[in-house]
Every structure is written in structure tokens, then in C-alpha cells.
Design a protein that fits this description.
Elements lengths: L1 H43 L2 E9 L2 E12 L2 E8 L5 E6 L2 E6 L4 E6 L17 H4 E11 L2 E10 L6 E7 L5 E7 L5 E12 L13 H4 L6 E9 L6 E3 L7 E10 L10 E7 L4 E8 L12 E3 L2 E8 L2 E7 L3 H9 L1 E3 L2
Parallel strand pairs: 6-12
Antiparallel strand pairs: 1-2, 1-11, 2-3, 3-4, 4-5, 5-6, 7-8, 8-9, 9-10, 10-11, 12-14, 13-20, 14-15, 15-16, 16-19, 17-18, 18-19
Length: 333
């Protein structure tokens, strides 16, 4: 009798198992299709609206106008809380206006990974490091959205949850959560218009005329050059799944006639999370460096000094991840 029962249970398991696995695989494939729509929508759609960013105890409200026309991208981003800031983008040229400092910083930036354009064009390999699930529906900023949740497969990254506008694929809300499921960082539209034409004035800077007045602002050019020879530094403990995306020399002009003070900058990413490494020479008058890990919401930061250089590793990853990364950096002998 017992043998017969076990045989029956084995038969039931063999019959039920494959469809269950197929259903799981199908659900992940559908969830990935939603993420692919998100990756494309932010690059091809025109939209305008207001969104709120929350990180730990801090919050910030911004207004964005994003226009794609004839292959050209124009964007205006205004920070509405605290110190006024404004970012004007024309394709790869980005101008950041800081009126309290009477300063304009200009840089060339080919890639943009800011809300709602948080996903890369290619999502290959994402399922290796995240369990991707399709959730239910929710109403965000008066739009119907599809929920997609990504749970990390290891301790080196945070989880994510996205709310995707069902018709256009535009990202409406994004949460980043820790291993306990507590939200560390959130970005969400509170008001949004998709596909509506924007007037030329909506894309103009509020400070451009002031910056060119009788008392002109300082204009500083951010210089970025590819780092082709980084043989001095060795990275022994790169995080699983994080691949190098960029290596560069960065600097901002200090004043007329003076060269930019350069900082070495590496970027690693798993497609969602990103870790940046900054290395610069440390002057003899510099304050002592605190080697402990600090976190603000989703962002973890740690510093270290090696042979007269300050190393800073920061990213939207758990504290243990930046600690592991920085402990593996050394000068190549």
C-alpha cells in the first residue's frame, strides 16, 4: 500500500513538475519583455512631468521635459526643492546651471542612466543575477501600470521593483529595496504627460540670459578622456556579474589658464546596479580618511588610502559590496 502511494505521488510530481517550470520560465520571459519596453520607451518617447526622489530621510522634487524629434534629444530638468539647479541637455552636450554659485558646468555625456531611463538597451544576463517576476497592476500618476519585481540571487546587489505604463512602456515608478524588503530609494512620477508636444520655451534654461549678463557666471568645462593605460592599479575582487563599463580621466577646469585636476574613474555595472571607483593623489595637508562604510538610503560609500592616493568606491549596492570591492584594489607591483 505504501509503495503504491509513493509511486502515485512520484507520477503526480512528474506530471505536475514540467508545466510548473514552464509556467515560471514563461512568466520570467513576459517580465523581461516589459523591461525591454522600458529600455526603449525612455529613449524614443517625448514626455513631461514631475517626479519625486526619496533616499533614506531625504526627498527631492524635479520637473522634466524630454523631447525626441528627428533623432535628436532635448531635455530640461529642474530641481524644485532646496538649492535651485537646472540641467539642459542637447544630445550629448549637458549644461548644469548652479545659480547660487553662479556656475555653469559643461560636459559631454553620451550615456544617460537617470529616471525614467534606468535600464540599458541590452538586458542579456540579467536573469543570472536577479529572479525576475511579473506582478499585478497598479495606478501611478493616473496611469495603469504593470509591476515587475527583480529579487537578487546573492548578497552583492539590492532588489528592484518597477511600475511600467502599460500602453507606452514608460517607467512610472522605481523602488530599490534591501534584503528585508524595506524600500531604500524610490523614484515616482506624480504628474505626467506622454507624447504631448512641448513648446520651445519649455526647453530653454531659466538662467541662460542671467549667466551671460554684465556679471557673467563662471563657465567650467568638464573634461573626460578614455583611460587607456590603467596598469598601475589592480582590481582583484570585482563583484560577480559586474563588468567594467567605462574607464576615464575626469577633471573640471579650475580657472582660465589652469589645467583640470584629474581623477581616475572606473564604472562597473550588472545592468542595473552601478559601482564607481575614483582614485586621485592625496595632498600632505589632506584630512585623515575614515575607512568605515557609510550609507545613505541605497547608496554605499567607502574610502581608503594606498601609497598617497585616495580611493573612493560608491554605488547603489549593499555596504558589503563596496567593502569587498575596495579591499581588492591595490597598486600593481
Amino acid at each position: 500500500m505504501r509503495a503504491g502511494l509513493l509511486a502515485w505521488l512520484g507520477l503526480a510530481a512528474s506530471l505536475l513538475g514540467p508545466p510548473a517550470l514552464a509556467q515560471t520560465a514563461l512568466g520570467q520571459q513576459e517580465a523581461l519583455q516589459w523591461l525591454q519596453r522600458v529600455a526603449g520607451a525612455a529613449q524614443t518617447l517625448s514626455y513631461s512631468g514631475t517626479f519625486v526622489y526619496r533616499n533614506g530621510s531625504q526627498s527631492e522634487t524635479s520637473r522634466v521635459v524630454h523631447v525626441v524629434s528627428a533623432g535628436n534629444l532635448q531635455e530640461k530638468l529642474e530641481v524644485l526643492d532646496g538649492s535651485p539647479r537646472e540641467i539642459i541637455r542637447r544630445n550629448d552636450e549637458v549644461k548644469c546651471y548652479l545659480p547660487e554659485s553662479r556656475l555653469v558646468i559643461i560636459e559631454q555625456r553620451s550615456a544617460r542612466r537617470a529616471f525614467p531611463a534606468l535600464l540599458p538597451a541590452s538586458l542579456a544576463g540579467l536573469g543570472e543575477h536577479y529572479v525576475i517576476r511579473q506582478g499585478g497592476r497598479a495606478r501611478i500618476a493616473d496611469y495603469d501600470s504593470q509591476i515587475v519585481r527583480l529579487e537578487p540571487r546573492d548578497a552583492w546587489r539590492h532588489g528592484r521593483q518597477f511600475w511600467v505604463e502599460r500602453k507606452s512602456g514608460l517607467l512610472l515608478k522605481a523602488d530599490l529595496f534591501d534584503e528585508r524588503g524595506e524600500v531604500l530609494e524610490s523614484l515616482a512620477f506624480t504628474e505626467l504627460r506622454i507624447g504631448e508636444p512641448a513648446s520651445p520655451d519649455a526647453l530653454k534654461s531659466n538662467f541662460a540670459d542671467i549667466a551671460s549678463a554684465k556679471e557673467p557666471w563662471q563657465v567650467r568645462q568638464s573634461k573626460t578622456r578614455d583611460l587607456r593605460d590603467d596598469a598601475q592599479w589592480l582590481f582583484r575582487a570585482e563583484l560577480p556579474g559586474f563588468r567594467r563599463q567605462a574607464a576615464m580621466r575626469r577633471g573640471i577646469e579650475q580657472s582660465a589658464g589652469k589645467d583640470a585636476q584629474e581623477v581616475l574613474h572606473w564604472v562597473y555595472s550588472d545592468g542595473l546596479a552601478a559601482v564607481s571607483v575614483f582614485i586621485n593623489p592625496l595632498s600632505s595637508q589632506a584630512d585623515p580618511v575614515d575607512p568605515s562604510v557609510h550609507s545613505l538610503g541605497a547608496i554605499s560609500v567607502v574610502k581608503r588610502v594606498i601609497q598617497g592616493h585616495q580611493i573612493v568606491v560608491m554605488g547603489d549596492v549593499p555596504p558589503a559590496a563596496v567593502k569587498r570591492f575596495i579591499e581588492g584594489i591595490e597598486v600593481r607591483k
